[in-house]
Amino acid sequence: MMGKRVLTTAGVAAGVAAGVAGIAYSAPRTVARNLRHRPDPDAGKLSHLTFDEARRLPAHDGGSLYTISRGHGPTIVLSHGVTIDSRVWVKQFDALPELGVRVVAYDHRGHGQSVAGDTGHSLGNLASDVRTVLEGLDLHDVVLVGHSMGGLAAQAFVLDHAGIARSRVRGIVLLSTFARTPVAALPQLPVEKVSGWLDLAALMRRPLLGTLIARLGFGREPLASQVDLARRMLTETDPDTTRDAIVPLLDVDLTGNLDRIDRPTLVIGGKADVLVPPIEVRRLARGIPNARLVLLERVGHMIMLERAAVFHELLLDFAREIGALPHSTASTASSDPGDSEAQSA
C-alpha cells in the first residue's frame, strides 16, 4: 500500500465519475430500454468462449495464471483489462483462428480462474505475469495485445523484461489504454478511501444500475448482448480483486520511459471512450518511437466487441507488416460500419 500519498485517478475511477453523472442525467431504466430496442446481431453469440486447450501456469509468487488457446499458426496473445476476464475476447477466439492464427488469452491474477500470489497486485507483477505466460507456453514471435490494464501490463513487460521481450515478442498492440493516470477525472483522494468504498461487484449485481455502469464502457452504439457480457464479468470478479487490482492503476506514469519501448507498436483507441479518453491514447502513441495510432469514431472502451471486424483487420495488417504473419494469411472482409471511421494519426 502507498500510505497516505495523495493519488490522482484513472480508468475505472473515471468511469465511476462518469457513472455518477450518468445516473443524474439518464435513468437506468431508460438506458436499459434503449439497449433492448436496438437490433442486436450478437444476441446469443457471446455466452460461450470456445478454446482447444487450457493450462494453469505457476506464477512467481505462489499464485497461478489460467491460460486458454485456440487455433494453429503464428500466435497472438491477448491480455484483458481490470475487473473482467478472458471472456472479453470471445469474438477473437471465434474469428481469428479461422484466419490462420493461434490465439492465446490469460486471466490476470485474481481475475477469472487465475489466483493472485503472495505479493498481490502491482505493475511489476503484471509485467512478470506476461513473462510467465510467454515462457510457460514457450511462445516466440508473438503479437502481444494489451487492453486497458492489459496494455499497462504489456508496456511494463517490455520495459522491465526487455531482453525477454526482444526474444519472444515481434510487436505490441495497445488497445484502449494509457501510460499516465489522467489528472482531471476526479478530485484527489487518499488511496485508503478509494480502496475502501469501491464495491463495484455489489453495484453490478443490481440489474438496472449494473447495466448502466457497464454501458459506460461502450461508445455511441452499444449492443445489449455486449453490455450484458461486460456486466456479468464485472459482477463475477472477486470483490477483493476489484478493490486491490485497481489501486496500482491509480498512480501510474510510464511516460518518461516510453522511449525505451523498442518493439513495433500499434496504438488503437476509441474517440467515444470515457474511461481512457483520446487525449491519453494520443499521449501514449506520441511517447513510443515510431508507434502508429488509430482512433475509431463513435467507439468506446470495448473495441474488441464494438468493432471486432475492424480490430481484426488492423491487428492482422500490423502482424503482416512486422513479419509476425505471412502476407498470404487470410484477410478479414469486413462490412463493419466502423470501417470507414478509422483514422490514423
Walk me through this protein's architecture:
There is one protein chain. By secondary structure, the protein is α/β, with parallel strands linked by helices. It has one domain (11-41, 54-327, 340-344): Rossmann fold. The protein has 14 helices and eleven strands. The strands form two sheets. The chain has a nine-stranded mixed sheet with strand order 2-3-5-4-6-7-9-10-11, with helices on both faces. A two-stranded antiparallel ribbon has the order 1-8. Strand 9 (265-270), helix 12 and strand 10 (292-296) form a beta-alpha-beta unit. Helix 9 packs across helix 10 (224-236). The longest helix is centred in the N-terminal third of the chain and has 14 residues, at 12-25. The protein is globular and about 50 Å long. Mean pLDDT is 85; it is low at 1-27, 191-197 and 333-345.
Topology (SSEs and partners):
Blueprint (H helix, E strand, L loop, with lengths): L5 E2 L4 H14 L2 H10 L15 E6 L5 E7 L4 E5 L10 H6 L6 E5 L16 H14 L5 E6 L1 H12 L1 H7 E7 L13 E2 H7 L2 H5 L2 H9 L8 H13 L2 H8 L18 E6 L7 H10 L4 E5 L6 H4 L1 H14 L20 E3 L1
In summary, what is this structure?
The chain is α/β, with parallel strands linked by helices and 345 residues long. The chain has a single domain, classed as Alpha/Beta hydrolase fold, catalytic domain (Rossmann fold), CATH 3.40.50.
